[in-house]
Amino acid sequence: MKSLQELYLNRNKLVGQVPLCLTGLTGLRVLDLSSNNLTGKLPPSLGNLGSLTYLSLLENNFEGAFSVGWLANLSQLRVFRLGSRSKSFQVESEGSWKPKFQLSVVELPSCNLVKVPNFLLHQKDLSRLDLSNNKIYGDFPHWLLVNNTKLEVLFLQNNLFATFHLPKSAHKLLLLDVSANDFSNLLPEDIGWVLPQLHFHGKLPRSFVMGCYSIYVLRLSHNQLSGEVLPESANFTGIWELSMDNNLFTGKIGQGLRNLRGLQLLDISNNNLTGVIPSWIGELQNLNALLLSNNSLEGEIPISLFNILFLKLVDLSANTLSGDIPPHVNSSGHALLLFQDNNLSGVIPDTLLMHVAVLDLRNNRLSGNIPAFTNTQYTHTLLLRGNNLTGSIPRQLCGLQDIKLLDLANNRLNGSIPSCFSNTSFAFGKEDTLSDQHYGGVSGGVIQLYEQEYSMLFKSLIVLGSFTIDYVPDTQIKIEFATKHRYDTYLGGNLKLLYGLDLSDNELSGDIPADLGGLLELQALNLSRNKLSGLIPESFSGLKNVESLDLSFNRLQGRIPSQLTELNSLAVFSVSFNNLSGVIPQGKQFNTFGTQSYLGNPLLCGQSINTSCDGSHFQEPDNGVEADESTVDMVSFYWSLAAGYVAILIGICSSLSFDSPWRRFWFYLVDVFIHKAKSLLW
């Protein structure tokens, strides 16, 4: 295919290294390998593609060093995108070489850069530049604006820039992000842009609230702004997004928000707000996301919130809200409801999962049974930990066919574990048909910054200047789930990657169902601190993806199945404080588990706990039943022996207290014994 001019392989699941044969396709004008899982070093022979105009290698797992100088002779190159998820990847751009290309778009995020690349000194036509998520230090490179009068988008966030200076002349820059740097100086008074992480303080000026009448997106996040949240009406009634999170705002949620009828995202989380959630928020019918977490809001959840048709994300966590939970959500999509760490009480409505993808009710005061939920086809995350729920685990939970995270820990649930979870995605997995919004992203409008087509000799699919920015990119939720004896946080789309089941800290009893061993997708299984008995199922060897398995603080008996050594992904294993016996298996992952995994099982032996299995006391039973029969309770044995001795003594004394031939014969024998003893001694 020597005549091939455009090759698009982006957004697949390709692995391995970049094939060298691709660098022989010298007619290529477009090569897009972005958003794959490619690894290894990039070949210098990419510089042989002399006709290349568009090269995108973003979002892979490349390693080692890459020199931009390898591309120095690509005179036709206009778009260059490169970045890696691997921390061991680094772009090298030092040297005195002068490129033959004039680029329009340069994206080098996450390339471990420590300086602005030298080749950019020679670029005059840049329209978009992304150097975010690197380690670049020093002064803000204002010369980039001076040299590139067409520059419209500049991303420098998450670096180590120390000082900020703008050029003296006016510039047409449309989007500038320098958040998360080390700036220490004051910003120029005429900057005209709100920069989210530079720690502005004080109250919002009235002139700002009333003067920015045409604003669509306002992000004031991560500053030290104080005062009330729009206590009076604002003039920017056409606003789509208002983010005021991580500041020092106090007081009640202001009435000024009420006339922002086009608002789609409202984020006032992580402040010091008090009072109740006003019911008039339900009048904002275009609202997609409402984030009010980590404040001191009280009172009940207004039922009007659940009647907003387009509402996808409601985060009210970490407040002091009380009362009952509204019965259902009328959202047209699949909502994410985060109500954890409040004082909510009452029972959980059985219709609550209708149109709900994520439900987090952890650490409240909910009571009653877990309901037999209806309409559960969209739910993939259900978290009920830390309440006062009672009764058994309903079999209807096995109707959660798309479930990925189920946390019922730290309640008062009893009965046995249902043996029907093999009907869920825990067992067979599921090709993910849910979009990112079901994991925390919220879809919405798009700001179209500019659109410009780069012409080639033929009709090309390349659109160099087509750049859009989602105006609600920061709404991904964070879910904490206990794995490996710690809580890990999973953000947004990463939730797609985790399957976990936690039933710990309850009063569950009976045997562990063997079909749990068929939950092939599980990465974390926690059944600890219950009253489970019987044997550890040998079928657990089927948990091929499990990384954390905790069965501690139960009443399990018998041996640890040797088949568990087949669990190659197992990193944390605990069976401590049970009644297990026999030899601890060895091999593979089991060679890494120490004494902490087996505490409180005195009849176990093996290398892991430095206890020899040679003695008869530690002979491994053939099966759990024989082990239970052969174990002698020494305390009971001694009590039985003492009781028998006392009973015999009482019986002898009783027989001697009556005048009978036996009594006279006994004393005759005593007299004979005493007489013979005296004759021998004297």
Automatic annotation (TrEMBL):
**What are the record's GO terms for cellular component?**
plasma membrane
Q: Report the locations given in the UniProt record.
A: Cell membrane; Membrane
Location, primary (coarse class): membrane
Q: Which UniProt keywords apply?
A: Cell membrane, Glycoprotein, Leucine-rich repeat, Membrane, Receptor, Repeat, Transmembrane, Transmembrane helix
- InterPro entries, per this entry? Leu-rich_rpt (IPR001611), Leu-rich_rpt_typical-subtyp (IPR003591), LRR_dom_sf (IPR032675), RLP_Defense_Trigger (IPR051502)
Give the membrane topology, semicolon-separated if more than one. Single-pass membrane protein
Q: Where are the membrane-spanning stretches?
A: 637-658
Give the coiled coil ranges. none
Record PANTHER family: RECEPTOR-LIKE PROTEIN 13 (PTHR48062:SF64), RECEPTOR-LIKE PROTEIN 14 (PTHR48062)
**What family does the database annotate?**
Belongs to the RLP family.
Name the chain's protein. Leucine-rich repeat-containing N-terminal plant-type domain-containing protein
Naturally occurring in which organism (per UniProt) = Brassica campestris
Task: Tell me the lineage of the source organism.
Answer: Eukaryota, Viridiplantae, Streptophyta, Embryophyta, Tracheophyta
